[in-house]
Amino acid sequence: MVLEKQLFLFLNIVHNSMKQLMSDSFRKGGFKLSPEQFLVMDTLWDEGVLTQQQIADITMRDKNSIVKLIDGLESRKLVKRVSNPEDRRQNLIKVTPYSMKIRDDVETIAYESVYKIIGEISRDDLKLFVRVLAAMERNMNPSSDLEALAEKYPTKKN
Question: Has residue 112 got a pLDDT over 50?
Fold first, then answer.
């Protein structure tokens, strides 16, 4: 198989398998949460109260998809929309006490899923893989800088 074809096929397969594994893990853990919803929650847990646009910028998703994700999270009582007192056209998204209560359990499930995915891959190989993915994104979107985004919003765990 041509290398370029393998790249497209393998990235697609791994992406879909990763989403399925995480969805199944959350469900088995008793949480109705998609991987995309987890990324929003993880961002809010780490960064605090944000606007929908800030969430979109941090997660590099379009604002419309963020609105739909927040709708689902709000219906599950994980977040709450409140009007921004400085700009009433904006909603601020806050985590609820319930979401803070389940945070550790949800994060544990997410990290266990990631550890299963990465298996015995070395830290050096993972760092190289992340750099390659960032370069691929930059090739498609020259203004994109995933490495700068990672520095601006570092993860809490290493």
Answer: yes
